[in-house]
Structure formats: structure tokens, C-alpha cells
């Protein structure tokens, strides 16, 4: 086993050169101690034109701030709240990519990775470390990087799945900063209804994909009477943990990774992180595996549940932006939509409240100018709001419009019907679905 020789964060980041592209471990496991050391180098005028790439990150994000303009430039694969304002002000940027393809960016050379900075667990007896709560595309970055720096943190759980040998790293820094935690938001009354409607579409023995947030927290209690569910997802948090602990999710009917929980990154409370630590039921895997549509499709009755910022009458799903304003990212939505649609008896579900918190309708005649289409209408199947659930598969444009209007907020339906009539002509009034 390789002997670990720890160095300070300031010494480790000496590997970074002007013009380098840096990959950051992300979500709950951002190596903040290395970022702080890089900021010290930047403040001393030692580096410039350094690019950062990552999934969404939690905690401070100085690499996106105006004060480091010309020194740091953030180009994340997903935009979180900590960088959103700076991205939309032009001080940082968004690199649109399906999460499955994020690892391929590095492995095929489409995106440089000069230095990889990640957090890892304490090594096991075989000299291997785990990326813990955030595997994502970090294995690919470590493979191709000129220098790979590992922050060894005892708070990082040792999760089984894609672990790495110590020999993969060029420098080690020790840090005991706790991982970022995120409380579970309470669902709204509309989301509770949506959760119930989604649960009605999930059969016993299905394999599910969900994210985190209030909608997942609304869905989970509705699934407690289900049996033998599986979990193959890019991420999970506290909302789904209760179903695992109660035995509702046991993976008994999965055709691959039978009996296992498969994910690539986590965000939640310490309880979630402790749950995966040395738990043989959990596999934390490279995003190349979790988000591969063909891998996803190998489990029958795959149900993918995702959300939207708005959906037009034909089923075009926007989930990364509000008009031209970037809100989040493409994420793994289409990866799982494709996988679920290919799965035997699978279902892809887009679940969202009919209106925003400010009362603006989310079902619209056409998407706002500049809005990104994350899931094309040809891939859109089940749509669920608090007012109903409809399946768009096999439906024409006009038939889809009728179905979408039927699940819109009642106060918005007349205006949507008028817009559809203006678009489709006289036949619209006589169309039935």
C-alpha cells in the first residue's frame, strides 16, 4: 500500500499553473480547503486564467465571483444557487451537458482537465479510498489529469462501488471539515397531491429514479405501501432514505445490481452519509454507469421522475432555465427519460405544480424566448400536475395540447385553449382525445 505523505493545502495547489483547467469534487464534498488555498495564490498575483469545472457545488464559490475576474472563470456542468447570480451576470458560465456525457468530456479530450481536486475517505486496509458522497465524473477527471489532489477527510464515508487506489493521486491533504448538509424541505399541498398521483403510476417491483427536494419528500410517504421497489438513480437524500429503512426499497426485483442501491452522488443530512458508510447494500458509481440509458433500461419497470420549470402544449420540457436566465442545468433528466422509456414496462414522468410560487402558469402555449429544451417532445411521456396525469406517448401535437390543458390550473385553461385554437385552427374545437 502506498504510504500517505500529507502536505499543506498551500503546497498542494502549487501544482496549478496559469491557464489550467481544474475539476472540483462537488455537491456535498467540495474540497473547500484547496479552493481557499488557490484564492491565496490568486490574491498574491501568482496565477490567472484558471478554469473550474464541476457538478453543482454547495458552500462558498469564490471562483465565480467578480473580484476574481480574469483570474478564475467558472464553467460548471450544473448551476447551483451559490453561482447562479454570477452566471447570469456573466462573471461565470454554464457548460451544458447531459450528466452521462460529463465524464466523456474528459475521457475523449473534448474538455481539458489539468488538475483534479477531490475529497476522499480514509483508506481501507487494501489502500483504496472512496469518493464517498460524490463520485460523479471525478474518476474520469482523475484518470486524465496531470495532477490529482486528494483531500483525505474522515467525514467522507467509505462507500462501496467505484473506489480508487492511493496510487491514482499525486498529493494528499488532510482536513476534518464536516461535509455540507442540506435540510429536507417540506412539500406544499400541491406537491403532496402530485406525489400521490406519481405513486399511483409506480407498480410494485418497479425500479425508481428520483432526485431530492420537496417533491421527493411528498412522493416518499405515498410509496410506503408499495413492495419490492428498486433504486437506480443519479442521487438521493433523506426523502428516500425512509423507504430504504422500512424495506420498501430493497432491490429484490432488479435485473442488474439486484438487492443494491445504485447512485452517483448524495446530498442530505449526516444520517444519509452515515447510512452509506461501509454499507454493502449501496454502490456509489461513476456517472458513466448510473446515467447510461442502456444500463438504466436493463431494469424492467424503470420509473424516472423528474421536474420542469415549464412545459409547452406540445410536451417540450424546459428544466434548466427561465427564459434566457440559467437556473440549474440539463442534469441527468434526459439520461433517465431515455432509459425509462427503453425499459420493459418503464415510465418516464415529468412532475410539476401547474403554477409557480408567484402564480405564473408553468404550462404555456410556447416556451419563453431563450428557454432551453432539456427533454424534446418526442421523448416526453407522462405529465403530472396537481390536476391530473396524462400520457403523451403516441399522441399528435393537437392531442397533446388537449391533454396538457386538461392538467393545467383551471384558471389558465381558457387562455391556453384560445392560444391552441389560434395555432391549430377550426378543427381544434372538434378534436377529442
Describe this structure in words.
The protein has helices at residues 9-12, 32-43, 81-88, 99-107, 138-144, 189-200, 214-222, 238-245, 270-276, 287-290, 293-296, 333-342, 397-406, 410-424; strands at residues 21-24, 50-53, 72-76, 93-94, 115-120, 128-129, 147-152, 164-165, 171-174, 207-209, 230-232, 235-236, 261-263, 265-266, 282-284, 302-306, 310-312, 317-318, 321-322, 325-326, 347-351, 363-364, 382-385, 388-391. Helix content is 27%, strand content 18%. By secondary structure, the protein is an alpha/beta fold. Helix 4 (99-107) runs parallel beside helix 5 (138-144), helix 7 packs parallel to helix 8 and helix 13 runs antiparallel to helix 14. The chain folds into two domains: 9-174, 3-Layer(aba) Sandwich (Glutaconate Coenzyme A-transferase); 189-427, 3-Layer(aba) Sandwich (Glutaconate Coenzyme A-transferase). Strand 19 (321-322) and strand 20 form a beta hairpin.
Feature tags:
433 residues, globular, 2 domains, Glutaconate Coenzyme A-transferase, 24 strands, 18% strand, alpha/beta, seven-stranded parallel sheet, eight-stranded mixed sheet
- Beta-strand segment tally: 24
CATH topology term of the largest domain:
Glutaconate Coenzyme A-transferase
Structural class: alpha/beta
The main sheet orders its strands as 15-13-11-10-16-21-23-24
Can you give the mean pLDDT? 96
Measured as a percent range, the helix fraction is 25-40%
The CATH homologous superfamily of the largest domain corresponds to Acetyl-CoA hydrolase/transferase C-terminal domain
Number of helices: 14
Shape: globular
Beta content comes to 15-25%
The total tally of domains equals: 2
CATH architecture of the largest domain: 3-Layer(aba) Sandwich
Main sheet summary:
8 strands, mixed
Q: How large, in whole angstroms, is the Cα Rg?
A: 22 Å
Amino acid at each position: 500500500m502506498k504510504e500517505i505523505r500529507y502536505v499543506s493545502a498551500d503546497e498542494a495547489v502549487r501544482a496549478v499553473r496559469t491557464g489550467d483547467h481544474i475539476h472540483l469534487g462537488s455537491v456535498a464534498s467540495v474540497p473547500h480547503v484547496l479552493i481557499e488555498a488557490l484564492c491565496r495564490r490568486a490574491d498574491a498575483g501568482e496565477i490567472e486564467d484558471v478554469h473550474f469545472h464541476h457538478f453543482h457545488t454547495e458552500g462558498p464559490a469564490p471562483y465565480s465571483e467578480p473580484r476574481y475576474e480574469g483570474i478564475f472563470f467558472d464553467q460548471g456542468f450544473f448551476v447551483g444557487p451559490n453561482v447562479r447570480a454570477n452566471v447570469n451576470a456573466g462573471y461565470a458560465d454554464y457548460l451544458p451537458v447531459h450528466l452521462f456525457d460529463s465524464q466523456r468530456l474528459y475521457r475523449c479530450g473534448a474538455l481539458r482537465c489539468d488538475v483534479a481536486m477531490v475529497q476522499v475517505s480514509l483508506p481501507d486496509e487494501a489502500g483504496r479510498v472512496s469518493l464517498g458522497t460524490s463520485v460523479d465524473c471525478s474518476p474520469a477527471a482523475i484518470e486524465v489529469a496531470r495532477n490529482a489532489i486528494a483531500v483525505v477527510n474522515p467525514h467522507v464515508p467509505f462507500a462501496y462501488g467505484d473506489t480508487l487506489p492511493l496510487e491514482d493521486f499525486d498529493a494528499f491533504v488532510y482536513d476534518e471539515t464536516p461535509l455540507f448538509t442540506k435540510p429536507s424541505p417540506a412539500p406544499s399541498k400541491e406537491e403532496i397531491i402530485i406525489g400521490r398521483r406519481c405513486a399511483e403510476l409506480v407498480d410494485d417491483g418497479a425500479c425508481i429514479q428520483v432526485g431530492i427536494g420537496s417533491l421527493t419528500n411528498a412522493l416518499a410517504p405515498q410509496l410506503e405501501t408499495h413492495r419490492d421497489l428498486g433504486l437506480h438513480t443519479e442521487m438521493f437524500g433523506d426523502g428516500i432514505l425512509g423507504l430504504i429503512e422500512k424495506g420498501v426499497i430493497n432491490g429484490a426485483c432488479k435485473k442488474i445490481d439486484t438487492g443494491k442501491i445504485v447512485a452517483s452522488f448524495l446530498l442530505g443530512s449526516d444520517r444519509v452519509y452515515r447510512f452509506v458508510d461501509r454499507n454493502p447494500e449501496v454502490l456509489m458509481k461513476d456517472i458513466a454507469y448510473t446515467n447510461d440509458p442502456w444500463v438504466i433500461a436493463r431494469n424492467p419497470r424503470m420509473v424516472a421522475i423528474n421536474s420542469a420549470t415549464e412545459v409547452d402544449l406540445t410536451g417540450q420540457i424546459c428544466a434548466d432555465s427561465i427564459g434566457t436566465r440559467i437556473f440549474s442545468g440539463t442534469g441527468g433528466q434526459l439520461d433517465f427519460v431515455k432509459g425509462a422509456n427503453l425499459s420493459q414496462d418503464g415510465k418516464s414522468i415529468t412532475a410539476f405544480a401547474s403554477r409557480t410560487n408567484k402564480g405564473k402558469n408553468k404550462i404555456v402555449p410556447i416556451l419563453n424566448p431563450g428557454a432551453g429544451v432539456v427533454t424534446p417532445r418526442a421523448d416526453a411521456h407522462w405529465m403530472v400536475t396537481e390536476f391530473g396525469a396524462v400520457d403523451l406517448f403516441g399522441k399528435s401535437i393537437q392531442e397533446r395540447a388537449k391533454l396538457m390543458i386538461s392538467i393545467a390550473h383551471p384558471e389558465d385553461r381558457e387562455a391556453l385553449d384560445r392560444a391552441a385554437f389560434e395555432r391549430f385552427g377550426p378543427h381544434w374545437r372538434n378534436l377529442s382525445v
